[in-house]
Amino acid sequence: MAAAAGARSPLTRKLNRCFPEPGPLLQAPSGSVRKPTSLAMASDSGDRNSTLKRCLGVLRDARNDSEQLAALLLVTKAVRAGEVDAKTRRQIFDAIGFTFPNRLLASRQPPAGCPEHTFRALGLTLLACFCTDPELAGHSQILNKIPTFNDILVSPCNPDSTSMIDDVYQCLSAVMATTRGPRELVTKGTVSALCQAYVNCSYGSDRALTLLLGLLAVAEAKCWQRDAPHLLAVLSKLSDDFLKTEDMTKFELCEVLPHFIPLSPPLTQDSQGSECLHRLYKGLANILGSKLSQSQRDPALKLAACLVQACGSEWIPAGSAGSKFLALLVNLACVEVRLTLEEPDPLEVEGKKELVTACYVLIEMGIQECLREEKPLLEDVQKMQLMRIMEEAFGAVLFYLRQVKQEELQDPFIFASVRILGAWMAEETSSLKQEICELLPFLVHYAKKLFKESSPAASLPQPELVSTEGSGLPQDALRFLLPGFCHLTAEDRPRDILISEGAPALLCEYFLHQWEVLTSEPGSLTPLTSTEMSLQTACGIFLNLVVTAPDLVRRDKTFSSLMDMLLKSLPLLLPQKDHLVLAANIATLGLMMARILAGSAVLQGTQSAKEFFGAAIRFLSQAHAAQAEPGSDGLAVAVSPAYASAWADVRELWFLGMQALAGCVPLFPWLPQAVLQARWLEDLSELLTRVTPTSVDFELIAAFQGVLVELARASKPCRDVILSHHGGEWANLYGMAALEQCLSEQ
């Protein structure tokens, strides 16, 4: 192709001699054009391909510039008529190549009496003809014309230059269909040009919108990253049209608008974006508050779901109107789910999967809003009504999932249904308990299958329910089931089902995998992600099993593998910033498991065990500090600054960890020495000596005493350190009777 493009045919050489640069490309002398009889006759006959072949012959054999121009004009006339077959197009390219169109585009001096864009129009027509060949459309000579195409789109359009615009859109459409095309169009500024063409209602603006939709479909993030202001201008026009139109265009715009609603940057952070959202809210409220056919309602629900994915419920205003609209959205979504899934017709379900997936998004918003306590959009009565309605919808989801066949497990709609059920199980722990227990074997099997196979389940069309962030890939069904499993493992019957179905072993494997994902970037751990949240929730499940099913932990070898991983991970995790909650989970879980697995080889004074306990001691010992007591000259015990922001999530784990550490002291003879090396006893003595006793609550005193008593009993050096730091005195001062008695014994 490159050879063809760059080859210099006799015609090309002759044309280059006839039209020297930088002078005029072609001046047709008045009265000098000799129109070949054969061409005229062929044109009259209507046989365009025959005409083109003769024109190409004239191009090759022309005796002067005028004959060449006449032949070339006939060629472009036939090309514009669209009656050129692929073979003839190729012959045109072979006869002309890229050099001549390039010079036509560069020329600024038209023939006498012709419009100034004559040569440009001629060059564009030839390029548009070439672009109908996919191989030529991706050629560098076409790609480097993209800035020229953009300039023409944003230039004022005269009535006699519309054919140029048509040719530009044909070229851009052809380029976008090539492998490199979309990337080249985005990087060379075509998105901006298309946006301007659409916003200005320029000639062919409908084609500009079509091209924008295509580019956003394949490169949404890059488009918004480079051209957010221009895309916002398009969204502003679309939302304005959406609000104002009162005909079928309103429903057509419901199909278009989701493509212009970005997940990032958030529209709510921009005043223009916020105005767009308000217009979309008012337009949707008008639609959904009216009597509609299904074909009119469905696109509106999909648009609403898209807005929820991008902005949560922030686009819905507070107040009576907003709360009624939100309740209506969730209500309509629940009705649609029930109608589709309660008596599933396979063909009907297949055609409605995208719609029901959008309804799942709206229902999940309903769950979150019913649980919202700070500045709620819904009133308490509305919340109670919606919870009942959603419960009925989830009954339909459960019924549908019970009908799923083995060969359907790869269907992304099954994944979306499991995901929304996981959201319900995470928050509503009392309703549909019997039905959920019956479905647990399927849920474990499904999650295991996807995790083991890491299946690339296909993404659903917009609106997309499945997040692509972190571990939220289509195979990660467990991520969405973990919160519900955490609740269920605290209850006897569902816990027994999960254990019998092999959930603990699966969760151990999943935990190990997620830890690898979290630590995959060398040198640092990533910020809080879904991966870290999954690890925290999995720790909660394991803690439930440790407390309620210790025999399982003792006999199942997968827990030994988990213990080994916990020993290695805490020393790495604890020094990292912003991971205190996960560190608290791992420290507490490790200490609790160590009491059960004390006899395992990995805990017999190994280096990894000592490093883990050293890190656990640091976590527990550094949680409290002395600080000035308000309104007093004294000091009070307070949560350390490094722990303050996370204390609400860490507090319960810290107290549980203190109990677990106290239980470990008698089991590991080397553990008191680790406490001595950390100088925790000296630091704790100093803390309790300096602060006002009334500032230390009873629960904290009991936690300290539990550890101190076990250390004093198990280790004479620990007992001596406590006594040497006035332990007897402050034990009496704080009412630590058990410690006081232990210290008094010889």
From TrEMBL:
It comes from the Eukaryota. GO terms for cellular component: dendrite. This is Neurochondrin. Residues 1-49 are annotated as: Disordered. It comes from Mycteria americana. Coiled coil: none annotated. One of its GO terms (biological process) is regulation of neuronal synaptic plasticity. Transmembrane segments: none annotated. The lineage of its organism: Eukaryota, Metazoa, Chordata, Craniata, Vertebrata. Belongs to the neurochondrin family.
